[in-house]
Write a structure and sequence with these properties.
about 270 residues, alpha+beta
């Protein structure tokens, strides 16, 4: 705990150090995104000769296992669906979307030849931005609110697999996911463009589609996944430690999280 609060104090009272830490993590993040795409493209490229040879069915053992494991890498795009309350003149819309990333573990229980139950715990990192307009006492009347996220995600999804065509097999997935946000949004912090307080736990409905590509020793899957937050994540109570910013919260009736993810599975 001492180390935690010491780090927060350093970041709060040393802007130069805080900027240095931010630039470092931004640099590492973009390296991770490039690394993810490089691994995915390299895997797909190396597997092309085996995929096109229709006389060889690769990795048939994977479909017969009652339980198989793997891991996932992915990139995501997050935003909010904001419903205005009409209590004041403020208006809100989604700002520019940043690119986040996903690292996860895959476990699939075979239910039938075409159906599997997948549990895929992981970590997702990204940010969302809301832009408020008609803000009083602000030059231009526009204020941006930035919310950074570090999610522990726990999806439980059903995977329906179509009939295998040589070394390809399309699939669709659907199921609930519980996400816990380790980033602290309990307090408003205008110095870091945080004008809203959000809840740490959210529940999503996730739906995806994609295809598995069978390589000689494993499956490489590509999935496009859409996640829709089912509950209001806005904390509607004013922050007693930061009065004077309640009009941002009061302008919103409801705030739902949304996410689009491109996932690469290695199983």
């Amino acid at each position: 705990m001492f180390f935690h609060f010491t780090c927060l104090e350093i970041l709060q009272f040393s802007p130069t150090f805080a900027r240095s830490v931010t630039y470092y993590f931004d640099f590492m993040f973009y390296r991770f995104v490039l690394f993810t795409f490089f691994i995915a493209l390299t895997t797909f490229a190396l597997g092309q000769p085996f995929l096109h040879d229709s006389h060889i069915l690769n990795y048939q053992r994977g479909d017969r296992l009652n339980l198989h494991l793997g891991f996932s890498l992915g990139v995501n795009f997050m935003d909010y669906r904001a419903l205005m309350s009409g209590e004041n003149e403020l208006r809100s819309e989604s700002g520019s979307q940043g690119i986040g990333f996903l690292v996860g573990f895959v476990s699939e229980l075979r239910l039938s030849n075409n159906m599997g139950l997948r549990f895929m715990p992981g970590v997702e990192m990204s940010s969302r931005r809301l832009v408020f307009s008609n803000v009083p006492d602000v030059e231009g009347g526009i204020v941006g609110s930035q919310v950074n996220h570090v999610y522990l995600t726990l999806p439980l999804m059903l995977k329906y697999k179509a009939k295998r065509i040589n070394n390809y097999r399309p699939f669709i997935t659907a199921g609930p996911s519980v996400k816990y946000d380790f980033a602290n949004h309990a307090h408003i912090d205008p110095f870091n463009d945080i004008y809203l307080r959000t809840k740490a736990i959210d529940t999503f409905l996730e739906m995806g589609l994609g295809s598995d590509f069978y390589l000689p020793y494993f499956k490489f899957g590509v999935e496009l996944r859409f996640s829709l937050g089912l509950f209001d994540v806005l904390n509607h109570e004013p922050d007693p430690e930061m009065p004077g910013y309640d009009h941002f919260t009061y302008s919103l009736k409801k705030l739902n999280a949304r996410m689009f993810t491109i996932v690469f599975h290695f199983e």
